[in-house]
Amino acid sequence: SDDCAARLWRLPDMEEAINFGGSLKPSAVFQGSSGFRAVDHHWNKPLFVTAGIKVDVWDSTRNEPVNSFAWGTDSVYSCKFNPSETDVFATTASDRSICLYDLRMSSPLRKLIMQTKTNKIAWNPREAFNFTAASEDSCCYSYDMRKMDGATCIHKDHVSAVMDIDYSPTGREFVTGSYDRTIRIFKYNAGRSRDVYHTKRMQRVFSVCYSQDAAYVISGSDDTIIRLWKSDASSQHGQMLNREKHKQAHKNAVKKRFKHLPEISRIERHHHVPKQIHRASKLRTTMEQAARVKSQRRAAHSTPEAAAKAIKSARKKKIVAEME
Question: pTM of this prediction?
Answer without folding.
Answer: 0.88
